[in-house]
Structure formats: C-alpha cells, structure tokens
Amino acid sequence: MKIIAGNWKMNGSKQALKEMTAELNKIDTDNAIILCVPFTMLGAETGKINLGAQDISNHEKGAYTGEISGAMLKEAGAKYVIVGHSERRQYHNEDNDIVRQKAEMAIQNGIIPIICVGETMEEKQAGKAMEIIESGVKESVPNNSNGHIIIAYEPRWAIGAGITPTHEEIEQAHSLIAKTLHSLELDETPILYGASVNGLNAGDIMSLNNVDGVLVGGASLKPDDFISIITSIK
Ligand code: PEP
C-alpha cells in the first residue's frame, strides 16, 4: 500500500475540496489518500479521503492567540498533521525541537504527524545533506511515537521548483532515513518523498527502494493532476 498525501498550503476552498473529493472517491484504489487542507476545511464530508491539517500548536491550551491545539484539530476531524514543513521552518523559524514538540502533541491526541525533513540548497552544496536529514529524523521524532508517525523527505530546494533530485539521491536519502528509523526501533514507519511530484514522475519515484508514497504540493490542487499521480502507482 502506498500513501499519497496532498498539501494544499494556503489554497483552495470548501467548494474546491468538495469537487476534488467527489473525483477522488471514484478511484478504485487500496492506497491511502490524504489531503492536508487549511483548518477551515477540516470538517468536510470526504468519503474515503482522509483529511489532515498543516500545523499544530506545541502547547496544549491557553494564551496562545492564533494557535490551534491537538485537541481542537482532532475535534475538527484531522487524522493527520504536517509538521516541520520547509515553509514553517523558513517563515516561522521552526527548528527540530519545536517540530518534535508539535509531533508529540499530535500523537497525544491520536493524530498522525507527517514529519518533514530535508536539506536546503546551501546545505546540499556544502555536502551536508545527509547530516541534516539524519539529525532531522533523530531530533524531530518524539519518544512517544510508538509507530504512529510518517516521515516525509522533502529536499527544500526542490519544493515548488519543478525539479527533483536524481533517483539515486532519493534512494540514498530514504535509505538513510530507514536506517535511522531502524536505530529508533521504528522500522514500520512509512517514508514519503515530497517536492515537485507530478503525474509523469510519481510512478517511477514510488517504485524506488524505501519510498512508501509521496507528499504532493502544487499538483494536489487540480483533480486531473492529483488523480494521475494516484493512478501512476506501479
Ligand atoms: C510541498 O510543499 O510539500 C510540496 C511537495 O510542494 P510541491 O509538490 O509543489 O513541490
């Protein structure tokens, strides 16, 4: 079984979600389809499509204006939540420590965190990609994870850029993540690849070693593009 997760970022509408899920529900597939949507769309009726959020507070409750707690997300219908996305790391200065706290909150509330790790272009060029990926996993995965997490390898330089690493580079990163998860006794954890996935490259990427699915940004917003990714699984 593969996992195909979409990240709508700050896009879409309730109507767009209704139209997307109507199309997705027509697909005959045993694979898991997740759409991580803005908070306001979480209550929607989506059939067999699971909904996730894109952020969660690292606090339980209290005077944190604008934040949303794990309990609130659960009540709103989120089954998953993306934590540590590159855009949160870049625009909100989130580091592995905060990401781990957020993942902990998700797990405490029965929500599966999709923990994103990946290197910037600067880190790649400095030969530090593997180090960043390994420390990303070690420092962002909480102790209470108990197998209820997903890791997404998202090379930050490739997000929204229309370019991807080579297949060898993806396999190298995923193999390191699998090895790191093994050392944490989390062998069953699915590892997704994310960044510039589309209907043309998804099938090949999902056939690579240790790739259990994909996290899709831009191409998850258009039914035809997202369906072509889902149906490209070999
Ligand atoms: C993302 O932002 O998680 C992502 C994978 O984006 P894109 O597919 O647009 O590169």
Radius of gyration: 16 Å
In which range does the helix fraction lie?
25-40%
CATH topology: TIM Barrel
End-to-end gap: 11 Å
Helix tally equals: 9
What are the bound molecules?
phosphoenolpyruvate
- Spans of at least 5 consecutive residues with low confidence: none
Give the strand order, joined by hyphens, for the main sheet: 1-2-3-4-5-6-7-8
How large is the share of residues in beta strands?
A: 15-25%
Structural class per helix/strand content?
alpha/beta
Number of domains: 1
- Please identify the top-level CATH class: Alpha Beta
Provide the CATH superfamily. Aldolase class I
Could you tell me the number of beta strands?
8
Shape: globular
Q: Write the element-wise H/E pattern from the N-terminal end onward.
A: EHEEHEHHEHHEHEHEH
The average pLDDT value, as a whole number, equals 97
Q: Mind describing the biggest β-sheet? A: 8 strands, parallel, barrel
CATH architecture, by name, is: Alpha-Beta Barrel
Describe this structure in words.
The protein is an alpha/beta fold and 234 residues long. The chain has a single domain (3-230), classed as TIM Barrel, CATH 3.20.20.70. Helices cover 36% and strands 15% of the residues. β7 (191-194), α8 (202-206) and β8 (213-216) form a beta-alpha-beta unit. α4 (96-108) packs parallel to α6 (129-140) and α6 (129-140) runs parallel beside α7 (167-183). It starts with a strand and ends with a helix. The protein binds phosphoenolpyruvate. Residues 7, 85, 154, 159-160, 194-197, 215-219 line the site of phosphoenolpyruvate. The site of phosphoenolpyruvate (PEP) has 14 residues, from β8.
